[in-house]
Amino acid sequence: MTWIILIIAGLLEVTWAIGLKYTAGFTKLMPTLWTLTAMLGSIGMLGLALRTLPLGTAYAIWTGIGTVGTVIYGIVALDEPASAMRLACIAMIIGGIIGLKLTNA
């Protein structure tokens, strides 16, 4: 269950990172409320996961999910570049996430 909580926390990190783009410097009410809610949920769930997972592992996986999800969103929805090097770097982050999970099962 802890790993599911951590994955959800990472997905909420993706949500708030993307949400920041749409808050216009926190001047738009609904995107700001959505972003702040996702931030609180993400950090709260990370805190729950840290009850049983090592700090370094949980934090690296949390930020990794956030990084990969945000980059993929940028490529798919915002027409950001999807160069071979960029995709290779994303693959390395995913490999690191999987490796950390496997070593802390």
Automatic annotation (TrEMBL):
The keyword Transport applies. Coiled coil: none annotated. It is found in: Cell membrane. One of its GO terms (cellular component) is plasma membrane. Keywords: Cell membrane, Membrane, Transmembrane, Transmembrane helix, Transport. Its main location: membrane. The chain crosses the membrane at residues 33-50, 57-78, 84-103. Pfam families: Multi_Drug_Res. One of its GO terms (biological process) is xenobiotic detoxification by transmembrane export across the plasma membrane. It is a multi-pass membrane protein. The keyword Lipid metabolism does not apply. GO terms for molecular function: transmembrane transporter activity. Belongs to the drug/metabolite transporter (DMT) superfamily. Small multidrug resistance (SMR) (TC 2.A.7.1) family. Gdx/SugE subfamily. This is Guanidinium exporter. It comes from Duganella phyllosphaerae. The lineage of its organism: Bacteria, Pseudomonadati, Pseudomonadota, Betaproteobacteria, Burkholderiales.
